[in-house]
Specification:
This protein is an alpha+beta fold and about 475 residues long. The chain has 13 helices and 18 strands. It binds adenosine-5'-diphosphate and magnesium ion.
Length: about 475
């Protein structure tokens, strides 16, 4: 797919400001297609190459939501000779609307067209081509008359460089469309016309009096958006809440003449259901957060109970075992602590590493301090991987400070490998991680193989000490 920006760069002379103006037009022109019951094309002159015939490139195309399209083909990116699109070329050169009918191979039959010069500042930079069926030419119903009337006012603004609005944020797919509910107000904010769908929206808001001749305020609808749009001549999008359970998105497009608002189009969209879902999702997020928070608190309670009990025992195996259990529980609590702040599928493991390092440092009892440094990062880790990995690292760091009597412990982290190296006394001769039956390393081996799906080696580090290397599978979920 070619984007307008790519087209502009590769084959036109548009300046960044001009391109932004056209992008704003493309971002808001669904309103124009619906109000005019027409297919719209945006054509821009192609950079003139000496010796070649001047051409136009189609930079955008939109179909109406309320009529069958007349242009089945995707014309975006196509170039046409200016001589064969003479009406568009004339609009571009004269800076005036040029109407006519065309019979063009791209379009098929002969259809009426309106070529609207798009002005940016003083310069006509593009032409918006409106292609419509002959039946659509004569408005029959009130709503068609009103739609076409407003379209005419917006077209006048386009030719005067007043539409699209400068610096307007467009591109939120949330903004209402004409079919959602259309209201036309005069320069005082009094309703001149409301489409059947707008009337439905009013009913859902509990407003049953006929809107014509009344301001939104008189009808009982929050009308700061309307007044603001009229006063500032700038578009406004606002959400209006009526009664506890109806939320309507209100988009006000002021209609300008010589920079002053002569009225406004108000598009209404009932977003109650959308917002309700948003709120449900929000509360689900809060609930998950809360659960993690409680799990963390419970784990901390268990860890405190274990340490209370350990303190009552005389130094020895029993006490050591309780302290170890306490430490393991605490390393699991770390993961839930992070998840309670930011519940999600992924956990930033770096934060856990710093807490684990602090835990190991705090457990050093000898007078000789041990320096632990961590390098690299595992990155984001799925929540169910974070817990076993945290327990494994806590075990290995603990062993290093406890058994090796090192001065330095180094932790090297990468998404595929974790290394814990110390410069201590080294392993006993004949040590084999595959065969050890001691509890700590059995837990480590088991978690690495079954929960992390990885492998572990443990041996002498070059230069003395011990090195534990854990390889993690690449495509961890
Ligand atoms: N980094 C290390 N340096 C030296 N010896 C170690 C190291 N890590 C583990 N060991 C040895 O392996 C043994 C088993 O460790 P582990 O299974 O964690 O049990 P524990 O820590 O309870 O003794 C330790 O007792 C120790 O002798
Ligand atoms: Mg141990």
């Amino acid at each position: 797919m070619t984007t307008p920006a790519e087209l502009a760069l590769t084959c036109t002379d548009l300046t960044p400001g001009e391109l932004a103006h056209l992008q704003r037009l493309l971002g808001s022109w669904s309103v124009l297609a619906d109000l005019s019951f027409s297919d719209l094309l945006l054509v821009v002159p192609v950079t003139q190459i000496p010796g070649e015939d001047p051409a136009l490139v189609v930079m955008g195309q939109i179909r109406p939501n309320n009529r069958p399209t007349l242009l089945e083909q995707d014309l975006v990116g196509q170039t046409v000779l200016q001589s064969s699109w003479a009406l568009s070329t004339e609009a571009l050169e004269r800076g005036e609307i040029v109407r006519g009918a065309v019979h063009h191979p791209l379009v098929g039959e002969s259809v009426p067209v309106e070529n609207i010069p798009v002005r940016y500042g003083d310069k006509v930079i593009a032409v918006m081509v409106r292609v419509y069926s002959r039946q659509g030419h004569v408005p029959i119903s009130m709503y068609e008359k009103n739609y076409l009337g407003v379209f005419g006012r917006l077209v006048a603004m386009i030719t005067e460089s007043e539409f699209p609005f400068r610096d307007e944020d467009v591109g939120t797919e949330e903004t209402p469309r004409v079919g959602d509910g259309f209201v036309l107000v005069d320069d005082a904010g009094k309703v001149e016309f409301a489409s059947p769908n707008a009337i439905n929206a009013f009913h859902r808001m509990g407003i049953y009096s006929p809107p014509e001749g009344n301001t939104f305020a008189a009808l009982g609808i929050e009308d700061t958006a309307v007044q603001w749009a009229l006063a500032t001549a700038r578009p406004v999008v606002e959400e209006v809440e009526r009664r506890p359970d109806v939320i309507v998105l209100v988009q006000c497009i002021p209609l300008l003449k010589e920079h002053r608002a002569t009225g406004a189009v108000i598009l209404l969209r009932d977003v109650t259901d959308v917002r309700r879902l948003d709120r449900l999702l929000l509360s689900k997020d809060a609930a998950i957060r809360e659960v993690h928070h409680r799990v963390k608190n419970n784990l901390q309670t268990i860890s405190s109970l274990l340490s209370l009990q350990a303190r009552r025992l005389a130094p020895g195996d029993g006490q050591d075992a309780l302290y170890e259990a306490e430490r393991r529980v605490r390393s699991i609590a770390l993961v839930h602590e992070i998840l309670s702040r930011d519940p999600g599928d992924q956990v930033p493991f770096g934060e856990i590493v710093s807490s684990l390092v602090r835990m190991a440092e705090d457990s050093v009892v000898s007078s000789r301090p041990v320096q632990i440094s961590a390098h690299g990062d595992v990155g984001e880790v799925p929540a169910d991987i974070a817990t076993p990995l945290a327990v494994v690292l806590a075990e290995l760091l603990q062993n290093a400070v406890e058994h090796a009597k090192p001065t330095h412990v180094v932790l090297e982290l990468s998404p595929r490998q974790v290394v814990v190296r110390d410069d201590g006394c080294g392993l006993a001769p004949g040590f084999d991680i595959g065969r050890t039956t001691s509890l700590g390393l059995s837990i480590v081996r088991d978690l690495v193989v079954t929960q992390l799906g990885g492998s572990i080696t443990m041996g002498a580090a070059c230069g003395g000490g011990t090195e534990v290397r854990i390889d993690l599978p690449v495509g961890r979920r």
